[in-house]
Amino acid sequence: MKQNALFRHLGIEFSPVSHTERLVSALGGFLGILLILLVSSRFVEGTDAALIVASMGASAVLLFAAPHGALGQPWNVLGGHLVSAVIGVACVRYIPGMALAAAASVGLATGAMHYLRCIHPPGGATALTAVVGGASIQALGFQYVLTPVLINVAVILTVAVLFNALFHWRRYPASLSGKAPLPAIARRHYGPIAHEDLVYALSQIDSFIDVTEDDLLRIYKLATRRTDTGNDYPDGSG
User: Fold this and answer.
1) What is each CA distance from 226 to 28, 184, 237, in whole angstroms?
2) Checking phi first, is residue 117 left (phi over 0); if not, alpha (psi -120 to 50) or beta?
3) CA-CA distance, 123 to 117, in Å (whole number)?
4) Dihedral-angle region of residue 46 (phi above 0 means left; psi in -120 to 50 means alpha; beta otherwise)
5) DSSP 94
6) pLDDT tens per residue, range 152-173
7) Taking the complete model, does pTM exceed 0.85, yes or no?
8) Nearest Cα to 224, choosing from 179, 174, 187, 193?
9) What is the rounded radius of gyration, in angstroms, for the C-alpha atoms of the chain?
10) CA–CA dist 97, 204 (Å, integer)
């Protein structure tokens, strides 16, 4: 029991994930970053190209290891990286001192992503790279937002859509996963949950939850449905 409590406090989750799923995630991340490296090398030279790809590496983990997660959906990836890139370039131009500009870039990017509803953790690295990434990155100015950031985002989103579509249990964007059929028989003692009830429950937590409302509704439906060949209840009363 103490061990289980320790794991819970550390956030260690022993969810049943197959070896196939783990290998597929690794392959997707490999393909996404390989293509991005090829693209970035056309616009930025040397080690600076690797610094730009670092934030995309974090995005790759979200898109290929957790393609249904809320933080890795298209608007989060696109908006998160682009707004962070703009803020990073602005900070390095208008805020004196590397340390202050670097800190401000991440803080302002985090706030902007919150307000624009596009929280994407790798965006913080995109903002920071604009400040500390070196002379060749800073020389790009606001061109950094378009090349390589926007192009890299377009590449990794395209790979995510096409690659995840190859596997029936994966869909990207996550909205496509809701089209799969659910078991037809529902236990009658579970009541339905309305969308507004779910929104209210999330508002009471008052914290960003890394799962979409559609996924929560789907989880609820799956949890309250059972595939059965007979009645809803063991005694046949259903």
Assistant:
1) 33, 8, 16
2) left
3) 13
4) left
5) H
6) 999 999 999 999 999 988 889 9
7) no
8) 187
9) 22
10) 40
